[in-house]
Please model this.
Amino acid sequence: MQLLVEGGDAVLEDDDGEVADHRVARGAFDAAVGDNPREDDGVDLERAQEHLERRTVERREAGLVELVVHRAQLGDQLAAAVAQTEARRPEKGARLDDVVETERRAGGRGVHRELGREDRHVGGPARGRDARDRRDDPAESGHREPVTRVDAVRVQEIALEVEQEEGGGAPADRHDGIVCPMPRYDTAVLNGTVIMPYVGPLRCDIGVRDGRVAALADRIAPGDASDVVDARGRLVLPGAVDSHFHIGIYRDLAADATSETASALAGGVTTVLSYFRTGQHYLNKSGPYRTIFPEVVAATAGHAYTDFGYHLGIMTSEQLDEVDWLVGEQGVGSFKYYMFYKGLNLTSDSTRGSAYTMSDTYDLGHLYLLMRRVASASAGNGARGRVSLSLHCEQAELIRVFIEEVRRSGPGGLEGYHRARPPLTERLSIAEAMVLADATRCPVNLLHLSSVEALAAAAQGRREFPHLDIRLETTLHHLALTHATAHGILGKVNPPIRTEADREALWDAVVRGSIDTVVSDHACCAEADKGEDLWKALPGFGGTALLYPYLVSEGHAKRGLGLARVVELASANPARAFGLYPKKGTLAVGSDADLVVLDPDREQVVTPDALHSAQDFTPFAGMRVRGWPTHTILRGRVVFHDGRVWGRPAGEYVKRPAPHS
Model:
């Protein structure tokens, strides 16, 4: 017999899976498990104690553990089984590699002393029948990590609390201990190995109701759900949050939203956070965001297959005055500054940056004023969620000098482009940004770090300014490609793809835990847009369909990166960095039911067709990748299966920080 806690009731389930003829109302159960249960709580003390003793004995004998989700502030709540990983407030130096992360990396465990009491742990290998089951599990060869089996999920009040606070489905009816029949699940994902961020692999089933995770249980009967996804032999991951995307940069925004979010589904991405700015490309105009941003959201809504949000580039003095409005009323929790636009355009064939950005003044003074605005908004937002500034760090004045040298003396191709925008320009730009961030106390995200020098500059910033909230990002293409392997001009991107030594340094930072997020920096363009002139070719390309596949294939299977770390890099950490956690980025009860079922043994050679994008080329062509999604589920609905997108675009705009009211 085992104890399940779901919705409002504690239910005892017999070993054969049949629900016993007695249920314990939530209030009575909570009173019984308290330190001092009383008869006037309406508790049959003898019966409650008998249930608890049986439960303790069975758990000890089976070697199982209990997954516990404690009440917490919604904005600070971690994934199921993880409580209070934010040991310090951001202004005191907390960041993604917080106490839990530090201990996990140091000890190589998914269970941490920080969690405190023994009953707050999820860890330790299962024994007995479950251990025998895993020896025959086809997924075992794919992840090779100890799997904790979930005997029961005790969710005190948090499932009901999250549903009420985030406007979810109504709780099950109950009247003073009389429990109405339990509702059926809309969808159940059964028999899979669930990868929980900050915890690791768990053997459990997932029940979904009203678009949210409603239950994590040792076993859910297939008949208890309207739709069933059998994940036997496969991994179940939280939907990825691709937090660096460029919807509509080179194509019609609505059309691009449709084709490129479809591509995202193929890679297990269920939420994209796209950059937008005024100026050339995108909508090719400037003006106040009060008129432009509603147009952007309207052009995306009804066309995106994934949920979506936007980071906004603040390009003019007028837009500086809109930051508070964007945060408070429009749900924009992150902004961007492009440090090389001070003196260059996007393609690097012109030094007339102001003509490209359509800005009045776009220099370090503008950055300082923007940092003050973002810092103020972040402080005002408080515990409701993080507000931050993303930085593209390349130093324009140095790039101008190096471009002139390379164009005059060579070399050509992507190696020449790498030398024309060398790592020194990243290093200097990061140093400039750190000084201003310190002066303003602005939370910052250092984007698409591409080199040994960029990593060193970021590490120096963290050491010199430990009180700052600094998050580090790198991209799939900087992890996967070099200027010798990226198919020539097709691989042009800013910052450039670099050397094998830089690629290995980035992987080392990922494995060590210095990098917080891995993203695609997806920007769909046609091969014709690249042309034959390196300096006029449009930079960027798509890659979102490789987000989970490449991290599982190269990171986990080849380099030993833990699966929990994979989902942290691609899902939980970006969700936390950009105000979406725990609505997105985890599989806790009450979170959006964004799930990915991934076959760790499925191998495929990368081609443009395999990526489901409108782009007619890919610099990743020819790579052999092992580990692909078979199902992508958005808010409980299967939207990608059998290699194709299902249904019409149903992505929703997500306001950030995610509202808690």
Confidence is low (pLDDT under 50) at residues 1-138, 151-181. The chain is about 35% helix and 20% strand. The chain has two domains: 2-233, 238-645. The longest strand covers residues 595-605.
